[in-house]
Amino acid sequence: MWDSTMFLSTLTPKFYVALTGTSSLISGLILIFEWWYFRKYGTSFIEQVSINHISPWLSGDYGESNANNGNSNNGNGNSNPTSAQPTVPECKVWRNPLNLYRGAEYQRFYWATNKEPLTYYDMNLSAQDHQNFFTCEADAGKAEYEIMQTAWRERNPSVRLKAAHNALEKNPECAPAYILLAEEEATTIIEAEKILKQALKVAEANYRKSQALQHQGSVMEAQHRRDNNVLIYIKRRLAMCARKLGKLKEAVKMFRDLTKEVPPVMSVLNIHENLIEALLEMQAYADVQAVLAKYDDISLPKSATICYTAALLKARLVADKFSPDVASKRGLNPAEMAAVEAIHRAVEFNPHVPKYLLEMKPLILPPEHNRIIIDMRPLHQHDYELRVYK
């Protein structure tokens, strides 16, 4: 104790000035690095390190999480449903759910704004998902599948498309090549649907072949899992095409069927959210509520789609009879309070969604739709009018 007191008493003001200057310099360098990393990858480096490494380490499951993640990243992992599933840390910024087509919709955004719709971080996650879904150990020695393994990692879109065409020249039954062309070469949803229908025929034939051979060893079993992933992915994209082209009943049926057969590795696609979107477009609110009952966990929100849909349904229950004057006198009843809490929960989970309404941001849709701009302008202090321009 005496030594530490003597040491502190001998420190001069120059030491504190140097300490302050050094800490400020280090903080500035960290800030610059964070800014650069966020601009390049679309996420915080410190946040990723804390979520993926520090938090699991402190909680004592770092080794187990790494082992599970290693198994999940390997397309040849054990398919036993009772085996431990990879523990993915919850975060509000979730993986790119592949809800838009790169060619038909992301390119339209680029043409309209001259801004890249996807960051490098998004592209990396998307490439990882494609590789996990569409590759397996049975692809070794098959030129067309080896080409597609590298195609998903290519930065240049033209190189990716050229690789897909090369793969189809070597094997016209290479379903992943059709998927890449539908995603990126097609410039409209109609074109994407046409290519995906070709892919569906090929994927179904490949699935039937591997299904008959899946018990002939681990390699064939891995190939069958891959073919199943490809088939489900194509069906989901076709259902999305049907919804975007106005064939809502067909889309709902396809999404309902898919929710029953999705393997754990494909859960990242969030097909139940596609089902919710289609049902909302049909104004089938009772069906939406039934879907939400399975997936909405109040204590652990899972997505903006679920949070805002739950808030919408609760607000609709009280909106017709709600009066600000009456509510100010008697207070909010339980149903109204539940609606308010649901709205707060949704905004807290993702505060950016309302800005598309309140700040009059345009929604850029593909060419087969009319361009729709949702505009909410205040008429009076507490009065808003919803205008939709086509």
TrEMBL record:
Keywords on record: Membrane, Transmembrane, Transmembrane helix
One GO cellular component term: membrane
Subcellular location field: Membrane
UniProt membrane topology term: Multi-pass membrane protein
UniProt region (Disordered), positions on chain: 65-87
A Pfam family this chain is assigned to: ST7
UniProt keyword Transmembrane, yes or no: yes
Assigned protein family: Belongs to the ST7 family.
PANTHER family: PROTEIN ST7 HOMOLOG, SUPPRESSION OF TUMORIGENICITY 7
Official protein name in the record: Protein ST7 homolog
UniProt organism field: Exocentrus adspersus
